[in-house]
Write a structure and sequence with these properties.
The strands form 2 sheets. This protein has a 6-stranded mixed β-sheet. Strands 7-8-9 form a 3-stranded antiparallel β-sheet. The longest helix is centred in the middle third of the chain and has 31 residues. The radius of gyration is 22 Å and the shape is flat. The chain has 295 residues and is α+β, with helices and mostly antiparallel strands. Helices cover 27% and strands 27% of the residues. Strand 7 and strand 8 form a beta hairpin.
Length: 295
């Protein structure tokens, strides 16, 4: 298991680098998992651009007012021997990170449009309410800090083998309330045709009950729980039964099922990742997603 000033300030840094899947995987190996042996190079090198933004905008034209902060770290392919794969990755990343409204835009246009919309909606939603609170306070008490928002979006590739390219999208956000939210979502691409893989593409029909039992068994082992009641006492599965998450990533030796906060445990417990090895899943898979013995 395991997630100012009166003017709007903006920093955009773009970097271009030509690197293979293996090298890109290394960039985030410390966060999620280690790299493999570079067999992915058979699909040719990919050239990536990295768009980084750290953008702060004040709520009103006052340097002491609350502000919103948007941070984006978006790594995306711009050149690849497999054009179909590259187009599929870019489209899926843009929709996943920014929403369906940005489908059809290139990466630079999508990031720029999302940034402008974020600031516009922040001011539209809160300016009138903030000014009303300021007027009612009569300068005797400070207005609540919940008026300051933030959002962070990070998209980076993870690659473990020559047949699949895995992307991780990490997001965190605060829009008032007791605490912010955060999530990690994975996208698994078929490296030959660019299609997005779902559990139905990986497992044989009628897999759900068997995989759910394996996941529950592994979760109990990971949490050192002898019984289901003991697991529930540790705040897991109090409101839901175990299920195979469509938020998964294909690794070298295992499939990792990822559950964000609130999905199988409360916010205080945090996100949960459960790994099931390909050996354990034998007989349930359509084919071995990763041939670890292949040279």
């Amino acid at each position: 298991m395991r997630v100012y000033n009166r003017c709007m300030t903006n920093k955009m840094i773009m970097k271009k680098q030509t690197i293979g899947f293996l090298t890109i995987a290394t960039l985030i190996s410390s966060i999620f998992f280690s790299c493999n042996d570079g067999k992915v190079k058979q699909y040719g090198n990919m050239e990536f651009d990295s768009i980084k933004i750290d953008n702060t905008a004040s709520l009103i034209n006052d340097s002491t007012s609350p502000n919103c902060n948007l941070r984006i770290d978006f790594v995306y392919p711009v050149k690849c021997d497999n054009q179909v794969l590259m187009d599929s990755v870019n489209r899926a990343l843009i929709v996943t990170c920014f929403g369906k409204a940005y489908d059809g835009l290139d990466a630079t246009a999508a990031v720029d449009s999302f940034r402008n919309t974020y600031v516009k909606e922040y001011r539209t939603d809160l300016q009138a309410l903030y000014r009303e609170d300021l007027q009612n306070s009569n300068g005797e008490e400070s207005v609540g800090g919940w008026y300051s928002y933030y959002q962070s979006i990070e998209a980076r590739p993870l690659s473990e083998n020559s047949r699949y390219l895995v992307y991780a999208v990490n997001e965190s956000e605060y829009r008032g309330g007791a605490h912010g939210t955060y999530s990690t979502n994975f996208i698994n691409f078929n490296a030959e045709n660019g299609s997005i893989l779902h559990l139905n593409d990986v497992f044989k029909p009628n897999y759900k009950n068997a995989v759910s039992e394996l996941l529950l068994e592994k979760l109990m082992k990971d949490t050192d729980s002898a019984t289901l009641e003991e697991l529930e006492d540790k705040a897991y599965l109090q409101d839901t039964e175990m299920y195979p998450s469509e938020n998964f990533r294909l690794g070298k030796d295992s499939i990792y099922f990822f559950y964000n906060v609130y999905e199988i445990a409360p916010y205080s417990t945090g996100a949960t990742e459960i790994a099931l090895s390909y050996d354990v899943l034998q007989g349930l898979l359509k084919e071995q997603p990763v041939n670890t013995n292949k040279k």
